[in-house]
Structure formats: C-alpha cells, structure tokens
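assembly run, all chains below
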Amino acid sequence: MAPLKRSASESTYSDTSLPSQGGPLLKKTLVEDITAGTQVPRSTGPGSERDNGATKGESDDEDEGGTENEASDDEEQEKRNTGGPAISAQDVQVARATAELFKSNIFKLQIDELLQQIKIKDSHILRVEKFLHKLYDTIQKVPEWEPTALDDVESYFKGKIVAVPFADPKPAPTVQYKFGYKVPDVSLIGSFALKCATYDPKGTSIDVLLTMPSELFDKKDFLNFRCIHKRSVYLAYFTHQLTLLFDEEHLSDFLQISYHYFNDDPLCPVLRIQCKPGGSSEYNFYKANFSINIIVGFPHGFFDVKKLLPNKNCIRVQEDKDTMTPLYNFSVLSSSTHEHYLKFLYKTKKQTEAFKDACMLGRLWLTQRGFSSKSSHSGGLGGFGSFEFAVLMSALLCGGGVNGNKILLHGFSSYQLFKGIMKYLATMDLCSDGHLQFYSDLNPSSNLPTSRYLAEGFQTPTIFDKTTKVNILTKMSVTSYRTLQLYARETFALLSDLTKDQFSSIFLINLDKYQEVKYDMTFDLELPTQSVIVEKFGPTEKIKFVSLENFVVNKITNVATIALGERIKSLQVNISNHQNSFSVTKRRPNNTSDVSNIRIHVLINPNESEKLVTKGPLNNDENNSEAISFRTFWGKKSSLRRFKDGSITNSCVWTTSASEPVVSQILSYIFKLHLAENAKLSNQTSKQFQDLLPLPNLPASSSMSILNLGSFFNVRKSFDILSGHLFKLDLPLSIKSVLPIGPAFRYTTTCQPVPFAYSNPDFLQDVILEFESSPKWPDEITSLEKAKTAFLLKVQERLESTNSEYKTFFARDESIPYNLEVVTLNILTPDGYGFKIRVLTERDEVLYLRAISNARHEVKPELEKVFLKFTAKYLASARHTRTFENLAHSFPLFPPVVRLFKKWLDSHLLLSHMSEELVELIAIKPFVESAPYFVPGSLENGFLKIIKYLSQWNWKEDPLILDLVRPEELDLGTEIGSANGIDLEAKVGDGVRDNLSVSQMKAIQSNFTTLRKVDPQGLNIQFFVASRNDPSGILYSSGIPLPIATRLTALAKVAYNLIQNHGLNKQTVDLLFTPAFKDYDFVVKVEMPTSLKLSSGVLEAGGFKNLEQQQTAFPKNLSQMSEKMDPSFQLVKYLNMKYKNSIVFSSHRYPGVNGGEKGDQNVITGLIRPTFKSPLKFRANMDANVLPVSGEQVILNKEAIFNEIAAFGNELITGFEFN
Amino acid sequence: MTSHIDSMKNGFLAIPFKLNPSNKVKSGLKRPGDEETQTIARPPAHYMFMKKHQSKSELEQNCLFLVNLPLLTHLENLKKGLAQIFEQSGSVAHISQLLYHDEFGLNDVDLSSLTSDLMSTDSPEEKRFTPRNTALLQFVDSASLENAWSSLRKYSQLSEPSKLANWTFESPSMTTFVNFYKPLDSEYLKEDIYSHMALFEQREQQAQEEVQSSIVDEDGFTLVVGKNTKNLNSIRKKILNKNPLLKHEKVVKPPTMVDKKAKQDFYRFQIREKKKQEISELLKKFKQDQEKIKEMKSKKKFNPYG
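ok done. output:
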C-alpha cells in the first residue's frame, strides 16, 4: 500500500509524477499514457518564444504604462538583465508576459486569485482519496456471479432491499440472454481525475467507472436495450454486494447510497455514494462535501460503432428498422467511451500548460449560467458542461477552422484559451449551418487529419468525434445551444471591452440564483394528465425520445419556438417534478410520468415581442406547402391579410393589452391548440406588474401595450406645432432655438400625458427658449430675469394676436433656489397640452459663476449648488432629454420601466427628493450595462434589476458610470472565415457608436476619487452618477438629504430580500409598493378638498372606464385651474423650508396615483435629523425649534413643532401619528 | 423637564409661550392606556430666546435679539404676545419694528448683490443678515427696551404654567396654498417690469457715465476703459472660481513648438531612458494592480458563489 500514502500536495500539483506514482486507481487509467509517451511537457524556454505571434495585438491598449514596443525585444532583454538593481528581472518578465498574454495585468491577477478560490482544498482531496482507495479494495472483494436467466435474477432480488433499476420497457419474461457479474476494470474518470474539478458549495462529484468485462456481452447486445438491462442487473448485484461489504467493514453507518440517473439519462442509472455527518471513521468524507458516482460502463470498442451512429435504429419495434434512435445510441456509445475521453483529455492537458486553468474557468463560467453536462432534453439548460468544454478545447487545439487551421495554440494562456472558445462558440454555428468534427485518437505517431469546421448542419448541435463516432453535443437541445450561444456572444463582447473591468460580470455573478432576474418572463403551464400530448406518445416516440419527459419538453419547446419566432431570444422548459435520484429499493423515481406541471422561462426580444401581426408565407399559391403548414399550425387564428405594399400574406393578428403581454396571449392560444384543450397557462407576475403602471384616462387605454408611446407623441406633436408658431413671431430679437426639456419629451413621466389633465404635476412640460445672442442683456441677475420676462411678455402679446387659440399665463418659477425673479410663460395649446417656457441667455452662466466668487466663504457651497441647479435645468437638460429620447427608442422597455420605478419611489415618498434626471439615470443602468444579464425584456424584469442594482450599490466606494449608447451590435464577423485566424479580437464598433473612451473613463474615475477624498463617507453627495453628458457625476445628485439616500438603499435591500425569499406573487408585489410609515418619526395625514385622480389623467385601477368625466377644456378663467392643484405640495415645500435644518419632510408627489382611491389623500412624513435626536448645546444660530433642558443644553421641542405643523396645515391635516 | 430654566448661560432669556394644543396632535399622541394626565399637567409651550442686542450701527439701536420665532410671526402677533408679558409687570414698552425676519430663508442669499452692485440700494439692511430663525425686535427708545427687558426677565422666572402668555398661531387657509398656483397678474407684472427696467437703465446710464469719466486711482493712474464698457462689474467682480463642475478636471498643457520639434529618440541614452521609464511604469502599474487585488481579496470580492 505504499503508493497510497501520497501527500495531497503531490497529488494536486505534480501532474507529471501522477502516472508513475499514482495509486492503483489512477495507475490503471493512465498507464497507457506513459506507454504512448504523450506527456512531453511543453518546453517554455526562450526558444519556443510562446508561439503566439498572432496574438501580439493582444497586449492591451488599456495599459498605458505597459504599451509594448515591439521593435526591440532583444535589446530589452539585454537591458532587463543589466537594468538597475532595484528592479528584478523576473518581476519585469512577469509583468510583461501578463500584459501580453492576458487582457491586462489586473485581469490576470484576478484570474489567479479566482482559481485559488475555486480550487478544491488539499485536505478534502486527501480525505476523499482515503475513501477511494478503500472503495477500490472493497470493489475487488465483490464475488462474481455466474450467468443467470431473468427469472432467477428476479427471484434472487426478491426479498432483498436492493431493486434492479431496469429502464423502460422492462425486459420481457421471454428474453433468452443471461445476466451476470464479473470483476470490473475500475478507474477514476471525470474532472476529478483530470484535476480540473472546482469547489462547489453544493458539492463536487467524483466519477468512478466500473467497466463491465466484455465476456458478459454478445456482439449484438447494443440492440433493444439488451446491454442496458444487463448493466442494470450488474449494477443492482454490485450494489447489493457492496452494501453487504460496507456492513462488514462498518462503513454503512455514515454512507448513504442511492440510484441516480447519470446526466439525467434514464437509460444509465448509477450508484451515488454520499456521507452523513458524525462518526469518527477516517473514511467519512462528509466535510469534504463530495459525492461519488459509480458509473457502470461498457467495454470500449466492443460494439460496432458504425451501427450506433446517430442516424441508425437500434431499437426494433416490430419491423421498423428506420426510425432513428439518436439518444439511445448515444447512451450506449458514450457508456463505452468514458475512459477513452479521459485519456484524450489527459493527453491534451500534458501538451497544454494552461489547459487545467482554462477548464476551471470554463467550468465556473458554465455553472454561473446554469449549464451542466446533464441532458437538456428533459428540460433546463444542459448538454454543455465542463466535459464538453474540455473536449471542445482539445478539438480546437488540433484545428477547428474551416481549413482545419488551428483556433487555439498550446502555448496560450488560460485567458486566451477561454476567450478563444468563447469566440468560437459565439461565431461558429454548430447547429443549423455547420458542425465541428475532430479525432480523439490517442496515438501521436499516426498522422491524423486535424479537426475542422464543415459547413453542413444537422439541425442539432454537433461536435462529431470521427474516432469514436460520438456526437459530443447529443445531450444538447437546440434551444439550450442557442442560449449558450447568446451567453458566449455576450461574454466575448465583455472580454473585448477595453474600458471597463468586466471580470466580475464574467465569472463572479451567479445568474442562475434568481430566475426572476435571469429571465424576463416565467409561465406556469398545467397539463391535464389525460391530454392529447400524452396519447401521442406512441411506440415510435418512445424509442425516439426514450422518456415521456423528453417527448413533452421537446413538443412544448417546438410549439413555443415556432409560435413565438422572433419575439423571444431564448426559451427554457422545466418539468417541475423532475427527479433523477431515487432509493436503491426502487426501480425508478416515483413520478416519471408526471408531466402535468411545467415551467417555461423566456428571454424576450422587446423589439418584436409586442408586434400585432405574426406574418406567415405569402399567399401566392393556395396549396403552397409552407402556407398549408402555417394554416395547420395556427388553426383558425390564421387569416389572409393585405399589407401596405400590396402583398397578401398568411398571418395571425393579436391584440395588445395594458395588462397582458402579447407573448402570453400567443402561448395560451397555441398550447390549447396543440397540447391540450384545457391546458392552463398562467403568468400572474407580468399582469401584476403591468397593472401597477398608472393607466391613462384615454380612449382604449386598457388595450394599449405598455410599449405604446402614442400619448407622448401627441405632446411632441403639439409642441412642434407651437414651436413653429413661435419661430414665425415678429420679435425684437429673433428666436434661435426652442428646446424641449420636459420628461414627457423623453417618455419618462410617471403618468402618461393626457389632454387637459392639468392636476398632473408634469402637465406643464418645460421648454427652453433662446434668442439670438445680444450683448445687451443686463449684467445683474434680477434685471436679467426681468428683461427675460419682458421678452416673454412680448412673445405672449404677439402669440395672442396671431394664434388666439392658445391660452397663456405667467407664473413664478422656483427651480433655481434664491432666484426669486424667474418667470415662465405658460402656454396651453388647443389640443389640451401645456408648455412652460423659460428663457436662457448667454449671460446667465456668467452671473451665477460671479455670484460664487463674490460670496462669503461659508455660503459658497450653497451657491455652487445653485449653479449646479442652474446647469442641470438650463444647460444640461436639452442634452439629457435628447439622449434619453434616443435611448428609449433603442430600449423599448425603458419608458415603462422607468415610469414604474418612479411610481415605486413615489409610493415610498422618495421621489420628491430626487431629480427626475437622477432617477432616469439610475433606471437606465440595467439597460445600457446589462452584463452578465441581458437587456431587460419585460417590465418586471427591468424593475427588479433596478432594485437589485440599488440594493447592491455601495455608493461610498463605487461610482455609477454610464455609457449612454444604444445597444451594441457586436460585429462577430458571422462569415465562416472569421474563425480562420487565431485572432481573438472582436471587431467592435462601427465607428458610429460613441462609447466612452478609456481616457474619459479615467477622468470620471478620478473625479470620483477626488470627491470621496473630501467626503469619504458620502455625507454630502451619495450618488455619483456620471456619463458623457455629465463627467462631474454630481450634477443631478447634489442636495439629496443623507437619510433619504440611505433610505433608498435600505428599501431596495428589503425589497430585494423579500423577492429572494418569497418570490413574486400578489402579496409580495403589493408589499413592494406599500410605504413603511413606522420608519419615520411622525406621520401627518392630509386630505385635499378635491379628488386629483381624474384631473391628473389617471383611470381607476379597477378598469372602470368613465370617459365622460374626462376634462375636455381648460377653464375660461385660468385662475380657476388652481382649484384642482395639489395644495399639499406647497405645504410640504414650506415645511421643508422652515425646518430645513432639523427635519426632513416627505410626501407623495403624485396624489393622483398614490393618494388613495380618489386621489385626495396624502401623507407627510417627518424624519428628525440625527443631530437633533439628543440634547445639544444652545447656540443662537442653531436654527431649530428647541426648548431648554439646562442652562446650556436644549432639545428639539417636538410638541411645539407638531402644533406648529397642525396650525400651518390646519385645513389640510386630518391626523397625526407618532412613532 | 424637571427644573425651571429661566435663562441660558450665554445670556439668553428663555421666554415660553403657551400654545393652544391642536386636537389632531393630541389624539395622535394619545396611546391606549395612556391617561391624559401628561397633557393636562403641562400644556405645550414654545420657547423664544431673547437677549439685548448690542451694535454700533445706528439702525440697530434699542433692539432685542430673538431666537426661535414661532410659525408665521410678524410684528402684530409678536406685539400681541409680548403685550401680555408687559402687562403682567405693568410696564410699558413701545415696539417699533421687526428686523431681518426671514422665516423660510428666502433671502439667505442675495443673488443680485452678488452679481452686481448696480441695483443695490446701499442700505445696510441689504448686506446685514442674522442667522436663520432669528430676528431683531426694535423698540422706539432705550427706555422701552429697558422696561421690556426687565419685565421679560421677571416673566422668565415664573414657574407656574398658568401664568404663561398665550401664543396663537395663524393658520393659512386652503386658498393660501392653492393661490400659489394662480397665474401672475399680467398688468402687475408689466408694471413691475417697466418700473424695474426704468430704474435699472437709469443706474446703468449713471454707471456708464462714471466709468467713462476717467477714474484716477490713488497712485495717480487713470483707468483706461473701452467705450462700450458700461460698468466696472467685469473688472471689480471677477470670476475667480472656476465652474464647480470642472473643479477636478486636470488641465493638459498643449505641447509647445519646441516640444514638438525635439526628437525623443535621437540619442542612444534617450532610447535607453525611455525604455527604463517604460519598464518602471509597467512595474509600477503591476505593483498597483497587485495592491488592488489584495484590497479586493480582503473585501472577499472573489467569491463566485456569494
């Protein structure tokens, strides 16, 4: 037993020592490698000079300091050696190499650190190896069993605990073949054997292969489940004997055994061994968190591989010899190639230094996205796990291009290998247009053809091994493959991002954790047990799909994929009661035929999802086969339509709705048609969220899609007409520009614009008017404002004379603090919209800046805030509006999402403290920077992602830097030629896109650093939100009270936790939008004399459509408009001004939305600032209502304040609550 | 509050006013099982703090400095409140005006005077300010002030709540709030603008004339002024501060002609220096990155399963 006493370090690190010194398990497996002489460690000497000439360009532009000077490599070498003694030559070499071989130094260091983290602990390996050796010895003790007939087998197991896990259908009693047990060949396989396994909190599995000796088989046993059944009996006998032996050895106290379908394949049951805690046995590996799969394999090369090709039939149903049985064939074939692939991968590993690291990275990347080696045919993502990743890597190291050219080189770093594979997956189609073929031959001397990409697709994902005739991707369904491609594309784009560090998006975030965030929509499908679909599962289907689950999942996937077409990006079907583990006393899991509960996850393509028409083929010829299949597929929904261009097309027409997405309508229809009459499809979450959006009081608004921007377009149209008139006016100074800056122009108002709904706080939309430049503007601010007003008076006078259909009035504007002279001209248009016009001159900015320099030192910060307000309102607003208007067109879901987010903020009384622009910038985050997720495709998904971001945003340390550009269409070079080179660069950018450059990014970063140097805790400015429009990052976020900012974060945390723990349902969604008044020091209830709901243009939530009540005109006397305005807003404003220093007051900004059923309620909450919560020293300038407690100390006189408030809002306030 | 406090250590008298408690507040404060004892025992009171104001300014003689004025205080209700106190001690004090009271802080910052001195009235009131929530109460003569002060002092030492002076808040009506939304009266607006602009133009004219007539400074130099210069604003009130948004921006010097022409890689030593520099930069960055990773590691940022 001497070889067993290896140290763990030896076993983990010294790969080369492995074959010669390894224990019996490993020795058996790998001894052939030595004889084959494959392990020639790649020399890394200077002579080989990292054969990556082609990747020189890889060295990143990011490293300014590290910019390579390629011309004189040799010279440098020399210098490095003779260089100053302070710099060690080795350091330099490491630094240079990493900059070259990895994306950047920091990326390489991050990878190193990550690999350390996911490595399996040596002590754990040591522990489990102890058991493995024990297991090996125990296996050797299992007695042989002579060939036995089926009857005798059954009687043997009668009365025993262990059952035979026969696959369906059970062997008929008439079968002639015999079953038996002979000592197997035992070897360790899988990633644990390759030492590529990673730590996984859910447990790591170790695969042990028992290869059945070939004497147990006949040559024809691959037919009709024969070998499968023989294996089942073999496994059962083995299990039985093993339990007896475990008992003998006193191991059964802590060992748990169960059957398990290997990779979800019902044809391949394996024995799983796990540990219970407790006991003091040295063999208990519970703490190491492993599970051991004992896989029973067939002898390699025994069956004729040609007969097991994917297109062959190996299960004969009556005379049928043509139905292909690809899943069965794969199951048989792959059971005989486990060891072969281990050797193949081991060979590659020996040749490629970074193979192991790349495997670990790939494995982590896949698990974070929910991929595994499990079959995806019975639902879920799968068919591509670490094994497939490793095989693909090996294939690409031997070629893989169109001409068999190499995609990856042996000298690549782990980062390069990983990126190369991502690029290959992203760009090369392995399903419909082509496939990859390779040779897994182990013999190095034979001059094998390299792997190559062939432009012939089999409509199923294919990486075909010519040596073993196995399609590595058999377990992968088409949808699973498409999803993998989506993620690979995204990751490849992230890897090519030079401006931001995307490391955590690529590796550190587990997307699979919260399905609500990962997917846009989730549907629950209930199928009645006696449905059409179950009946359709006949003998042919049985041999084709192997299991009912596979069949149903396949059917649903197909139907949904055809029905939804371009409307979705990806789809995942899961069977809710799916089980693949079962007790050794059972033949199979309990509910294999229970397919009644199904969950469908969808990623939406928002550009298509809400389209009204599903277009089919042209109706050129009545009996065109395409047309016929379209009509049969859609049933009576299909109809003929003539389109604008005159073409007549088979199509289906859907209706949009404010509460239900079109996708869910289509699915419900098509499932009823194709699966079962009474199939029940539900998607409550989407409805709940969509119903939360305030419904505008417009005709047919309940049938308007949430993506419909019609109401906003009407405002815009009205504005365009008005600005046309304004330009024509005869004025002393001509108009240079009329710029729309209100939120309705960028589709982000909380309530949709409704004509004449002037109670809506957003009713008057801001517009900036600029005259041609003039030196005559007064050089003093009050007079400047008066002069502006004089001009506005002129505009009003002229407009009234030329266009008397417009109504106008003047109002004071308070958007700039301390500037009390700003007057706006408000224009009401005949079609019921309102615009608030303010004048900007070239003098304003100078005056505000001058005010800062002239102010006393202590008021300077206040004046800087004034300047920021002015800049935000007058200078930056037009650009902000234009940017967001464009973004809203690129991200169709952004407008409804930001509106819902604003409503959420307002229901929690936070909105009134934040500028609209800041809210919009935060809300756009999951859209412009979605990685590692995709751009939100549904209202709920967008909203949840905002909440998620806010809950995790540590604004003390992290700035929010936004690249406000439309979604990236990464040019992947889809022509086949693109995978030709070893060039790993993406061709990013078509030149039109205006991404943030590295230097801009750095400038913004340094702005943030300087800001935090002064204010490390973020007491003054919490949210640093920068974009190209505002590199300072503070334009919209200054002046938010600290308690409000922390409250926002706290609320988001609570909300996100709630969803994580309780999921999305009616209660949780309602709770999300319910304000928590207990957190405030006191709450004041307010009631307004008039309802503001309808006059704000908001419809009753119950869908009660009383359009008659809609206002259709402005009052004759415009001063009557004030009667339907919100008085509570003014009350809160003055309260905040009076108690500025001691209390923060909040209230709903939109009583029409959040003000109870009638929209006449409001609440005012008060948060006492922390400094005033305890007694403090009396000072004359303390600015607070206090009462004395001693000669020096005072405390806040709350009672007096409450009475003051009660007196102030006497007619509005209905009650107080104190906490 | 256990003991009675009549004055603060820094010389302020604490003057309480009894408030008429609002029922809404009372019912909100009431908790089940909580008897009304507390509220009966001591009615809510508002405390003002007062001190004699000392100033050299002519205009601020005979003043009391008031801290913490109640809601919507103006001269009339203040007079009414204080009259009760003066009555108790039978003294007479005549109040003339309330100065610098700015309850909502609207005039905390006077933008006009900060941008130009054209519109300033040169009254000291414009430049004078008191902290927020404070004001000056002026009496007609020093005798009145003394009378007031002594009766306030007496009053502040009272400890029976029954004798406290009452203060009644004025409640703005609903219309007051709603009126904020009313359009401005056009005629008034026109009038206001006309008069303001007229004054402004006159001042501007005046200022221009002053500027144009040669200004001779102390050293006997004449200030040369262009003929379009209207005033000395741009000269006197310079913009010293940069745009606060650009505060942090680094200024990059554009390369001079000499820099452009000079060859950087002519001599061998230049090349060598450059290489050295590059390598040290590279190393520096490498070390920085390592530091960063260490920091990230300490924050447990590498847990992919977190």
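The domain at 117-351 of chain A is CATH 3.30.460 (Beta Polymerase; domain 2).

The two ends of chain A are 73 Å apart (CA to CA).

not gonna interpret more than that til we talk
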